[in-house]
Amino acid sequence: MFLLESRIRGKSLKNKELTKIEEILLLSIWRLKENAYGVKIRQHVSEVIQKEFSYGHLYDALSQLEKKEYVRKELGEIVPNRRGRRQKIYSVSELGFEALNKAREVNEIIWDGIPRFASNPGNQNG
Amino acid sequence: MDKYYSPRFARWIISLLSKFEKMDSLIFEMEDEYLEIFESEGRKRAHKWYWLQTFKSIPRFLKFSFDWGKSMFSNYLKIALRNIIKKKEFAFINIIGLAAGMACSIVIMLWVWDEYSYDKFNKYNTNIFRITSDWEKWDWDGLPLSPGSLGPAVKEEIPGITDYVRIIGYDRAVFKYNNNIFYEKNGVIVDPSIFTVFSFPLKNGTPDDILTSPESIVISETFAKKYFGNENPFGKQIDVDGELKNVTGVFYDLPKNSHLTFDFAVSFEFLSEHSNYSESWSAFNFTTYLLLGDKTIYDLSSISSKMVKTAKSNKCSQVEGGVTFNLQPLNDVHLYDFGWETNYTRIGDSTQVYIFMMVAVFILFIACINFTNLSTARAVNRSKEVGLRKTIGANKSQLIFQFIAESLLMVTIATIIAILLVEAILPSFNTLSGKEITTEYSNPVFIGVILVIILLTGLLSGSYPAFYLSSFNPVTTLTKRISSVKGGSSFRKVLVVFQFSLSIILILVTMLIYKQIDYSKNIKLGIEKENVVFIPLLENLSTKYEVMKTELLKNPFIKEVSAHGYNLITDPTPRAAGFKWAGMPEERERSLDLIWSGVDYRFFELLKIEPVEGEIFSENFTSHKDGVILNEAAIAEMGLENPIGKWITLDDWKKTIIGVVKNVHFKSTKKEIDPRVFYLRDYSTEASGIMLIKIDGQHTEEIMSYIEDKWNIINNISPFEYGFIEDDYENLYKSETKIAKIFSYFTSLAILISCLGLFGLSLFAAEQQKKAVGIRKVLGASTVGIILLMSKEFVKWILVANVIAWPIAYLFIDQWLQNFVYKTEIGILPFLIAGISAVTISLATISFQSIKAASENPIESIKYE
Question: Which secondary-structure segment (H or E) carries B808?
Fold first, then answer.
């Protein structure tokens, strides 16, 4: 019964690696600081990846990040032109920073010493 | 303030998609950004952007909502499982009860499915039709007999008929190959087209080459193995009744769900050598199937009338006399047959199938009612928990989902157990029913039906307590005493009464079936059936009958020896029509049908058939050779007074009536006693039929080996074969006995399920009334008094169930008994027995709980307040 109980409680989602879009999202949120709400985050990410980042994708990824507890949501101030409701501000959590550091490490290791690639991909072994 | 500028339709889609929590800000955010773009780049650009966002977001939202749903679902599931584990005994009873009911239902439905699936494996099953004839004069509709020449004529003259198949039974014969000698009675004479029209594949041989000559024979795979072992029978010869036949083909055993069944087949050429039946237009001896073209199947009535025309133009006397033809679709044959028994058909009964379907639904219904009942009772005990949840803000739909999830989980577990039970029961069920039913997990219909059952049961039985409970006022549930929360109990009472009514109906029906069978088996037959052996006589023994008889009578333990033209009980009755007699009224419309019975001397003495008037055949009077004896039924049919001495004729045949004997039951009590004419037959020249031997019952074994020895002396071709007519009488009721057995299983199951339900209910009634009982005890009530009090309610319900069940059961039973000409009276005793048993069983069931409750220490019960 004990085994069943612990399985029922669910596998932990913590300590999973960041996907690329999650990495971009977290960094955008960190950059935007107190402006890290829906519209601004989406616009920032769209600029970075040079594509129209959809709201659906945004909230899907945000919810995944929330489940992993890498982001926090806080209610910000009431802004008059926002029909009287409070905007939700996202911020990176402690765990989120850890995950980012790990992602950076991995990035640095695999990119270490590799020069910028020229535009024509003829030379693979350089 | 709330003015929206973004395109309405797109916004509507977004609002649909964002119907989840934490997503309500989405509309606003998109609106804000829309306005930004509107201001900086104009309306058109903003519009385009909004629509683009909508489209891009749709797949993501679907995935998002799927994930969300999945986690919500697993959440509910976890809680549901926890709740079930909390009350293990209750869950166990509930699940087992439901599983048993489901397993039973599934098995029956598989059987029904099998019955409906007959012949559907044939590739052309929608295009195959059987010719049936309607004989208005005798009130016979749908007789599957037609003249032998009809098939070929129809194929030639009527367009749209692709092919025909004629079939007729082949008489029992002795087969011999090497040392294998056996009687075989599952044979037919058939057109080779049967192997192409029907999907009966050939193992050896091709349809064009088999059955081309009188000596051709094709055999089934099993038949081949029986005689040839591992040899290839193709091209070999086998001895059939003394003549050699060539095995020109082997066919794979016919499928069990084909209405046609035979082990060997012989050609029409053979038949033509021995008689001209197949070319005749007046011998309705054959069953003919037609393969119709795709367009023709919509034109059945015109084909039927064309067939009548063809027959008339060929001077078919029966058609000229008013007989008409019809075409019966192949798929209807198995269940809707006229009732014409042959040795090559398997006929079912559509009424029986329908009844079983109803029973399956009934049992499933009882099981589901049980489940609902128990779930509700259990839910009422959790009303405190529900009240608590509501006060902390759980919304109504969440609670409802919770209960439904619990229900669905239990139903799913029950279904899994049910399927395991089905697998376990199926082998013995197949033996009982003579079928080869398997569960087809690959069949989408099968899986679909199971899923539907799970969903329906789970949803219905889960939603009742769910909706009922979640509409509680939290304040009242938390503060009021549990025992005063009644609500819905009247519905539950109705459910229990209904369940028990059904069980009582089943008890009564089963009892009455057994009663009728008992009655039929013990009815006064009019003969002494014990210790009468019969031996089939064969045509090659024509001169040996008298010799055998003399030898047998030398044995002091053999009392009488006689003979009859056919097995009275199991063989079909040869009937002739058109008898006339002295003093027959002119105006008589209906011609007289009589059954022929050709007998040897001492026939009546052997069977102890009582004479009523006149004399019985005796060797002392040569005049008896021109005499006949009629039975009472014949005399009644003729309306003849003083029959002795009067003549009776049929065409050229004319005899004098010398005696009348009492009626005898030779067939099942379902049938009327046939009017019979007994005549003397010379068995020294025509030895066919059966020899009857009355033996001394004390020395059966000895006598049988004596008879066998004598048989083997006079005959070295055919194996010795015998039977006892009392066994044949037993077998008359084989199918009713089978039905009775099946019904008794159903009844036990229904009672079991009803008791399980009642048990669970009493469990909760006891818990509910713990405090009330405790208080009563303190005030001085006795244990017995309390038990009586608690049981009173239940007994009342059971009595009501009886009152409902009795008339319904009576109707069903009366209806079923109409099938029998000779039936038992229903009587009041079965009803009393059923009623008393129901009350006793239910009292026993609730006694556990009521005794436990009544003997508990009252201090314990009142403690928590």
Answer: helix B783-817
ipTM, interface predicted TM-score of the complex: 0.79
Q: What part of B 17-46 touches A (C-beta under 8 Å)?
A: 17, 22-23, 25-26, 28-30, 32-33, 36
Q: CA neighbours within 13 Å on the CB side: how many for B863?
A: 6
Closest chain A CA to residue B51: A54
Q: Which of residues 35-94 of A touch B (CB under 8 A)?
A: 37-39, 42-43, 52, 54-57, 59-60, 63, 81-85, 87-88
- A57 and B57: CB-CB below 8 Å? yes
Rounded Cα distance between B168 and B656, Å, is: 36
Report whether pLDDT(A123) > 60.
Answer: no
Predicted confidence at residue A7, as pLDDT, reads 44
pLDDT in tens, B675-697: 999 998 888 777 678 889 999 88
- CA B750 to CA B752: how far, in whole Å? 5
> Residue B562: exposed, middle, or buried by beta-carbon count in 10 A (0-12, 13-18, 19+)?
buried
Of A56, A81, A85, the CB nearest to B61: A56
Extract the residue ranges of chain B whose pLDDT is less than 50.
1, 480-487, 865
Burial of B230 (0-12, 13-18, 19+ CB in 10 A): exposed
Pair B580, B648: CB distance under 8 Å: yes
Per-residue pLDDT at B485: 43
| Whole-number Å distance between alpha carbons of B604 and B583 | 27
Q: Cα separations (Å) of B318 from B134, B152, B288, B290?
A: 11, 18, 17, 21
Q: Shortest Cα distance from B19 to chain A (angstroms)?
A: 13
**A63: which chain B residues are within 8 Å (Cβ-Cβ)?**
22, 64, 67-68
Q: Give the predicted TM-score (pTM) of the model.
A: 0.69
